[in-house]
Amino acid sequence: MKVTIVTDSLGNLVGTVAGHNLSSKAGGLEAGIAMGPGQKAHAVEVDDALGKIKDGNEFLDKVKKYIPKS
Description:
Blueprint lengths: L1 E6 L5 E6 L4 E4 L2 E4 L7 E6 L10 H8 L7
Antiparallel strand pairs: 1-2, 1-5, 3-4
């Protein structure tokens, strides 16, 4: 499964986005992800099971192993 992980300047998790596209246009509307100063987007492949996790704490524990080391 393709996921984009956003980290801060220290490499800490800020958020995740399903897929690798950070913007989209449809029906005359455009939406996108805006990152703050020092934040980086990392396009990664993760285990499909990650997308089925319902518990936020469990998701955070498992997604951390996919954060690239700076």
